[in-house]
Amino acid sequence: MSIAFITSRGTFVVDLFLKTAPMQGFNMLKLAKINYFNNSLVLEIMKDFYLRIGNLQNPGGTTVYQLLTNNNTMYIRDEINNKLSHSTAGFISTSNSAKDQNTSEFFITLGRDLSRFDSIRTIFGRISENFELIKSISEEFVDETYRPYKNIRILGTKILYDPFEDPPGFEALKTRFVPYGVVKETNRLEYDEILEDIDPEKSLEKIEKLKTQHNAEILEMLGDIPDADARPPDTTLFICKLHPRTTEDGLRIVFSKFGTVTRVDLLKDKKTGQSLCYGFIEFSKAVEAENAYKKMQRAVIDNRIVLVDFCQSLRGPQSKK
């Protein structure tokens, strides 16, 4: 009743809760048996909350029934267990988008309060070996969509015990199914890409450089900077995912504890005057901005987890007119 997931960073083992979630357990075991999870990715890391695993080439995942019947409506229904909570670290849960529409995509809880999922997501297993690996992965650098800049892939799976008989047509499915391949992406590192620098600190610098270049290229395409090599000010931070009710005065109070805030610019819709939920914060010194960046990344402001980064725009905060 266990599956070992062999990843590019190490191996972890999942014990399936077959008594409380037999259908999802059956689905996972049979998909692992045809190597469906090969080349899947860690798609999202919400530090201290969860990390999500799926496949970019098959968004939303699948079920063994869909593969057997070619019917994409064959989902796994919810199997909610009220005795289990998503606030417990190390649980494996479905990543379904709607009621009774569970598939192969799943996430691993990291310990912070996710009790809001208890009534809508199925907890179907737990990490029984090497949760330390999961915690290590949760520390990876991520982009604005919370996806790691360096890919972390599932290279294979090993079924440690499967109590279920194979369904009709399964042998033919095993023969014809080919796992999704690896698609090379230019804006992130592949898991087996070797960095030139042996020094770990320099390797991290390369990842940070890739992150900055990626953001700069986007801004260049939008016409915000003359070219991707231009250097933005190091005293200005960009902040996003703010709550609509967050104000400039509120941001000034929060960030003033890190130094002298010379300007706060919260962007608003020109027609409605409503907040666009992102803006800029300018400090008098670069060291103050750096300290704020380190302390406020994924901090909670007005009940929202915010993202903070160094400004990639040469325009930065705009003067009020």
TrEMBL record:
Keywords in alphabetical order: Isomerase, Nucleus, RNA-binding, Rotamase
One example GO MF annotation: RNA binding
EC numbers: 5.2.1.8
Transmembrane parts of this sequence: none
Subcellular location: Nucleus
Enzyme class label: isomerase
Record-annotated RRM domain positions: 235-313
Main localization, broad class: nucleus
Known catalytic reactions: [protein]-peptidylproline (omega=180) = [protein]-peptidylproline (omega=0)
Occurrences of domain PPIase cyclophilin-type (ranges): 10-159
Classification via Pfam families: Pro_isomerase, RRM_1
Gene Ontology cellular component terms for the protein in this record: nucleus
Function description: PPIases accelerate the folding of proteins. It catalyzes the cis-trans isomerization of proline imidic peptide bonds in oligopeptides.
Family statement: Belongs to the cyclophilin-type PPIase family. PPIL4 subfamily.
PANTHER family for this protein: PEPTIDYL-PROLYL CIS-TRANS ISOMERASE-LIKE 4 (PTHR45843:SF1)
Descriptive protein name: Peptidyl-prolyl cis-trans isomerase
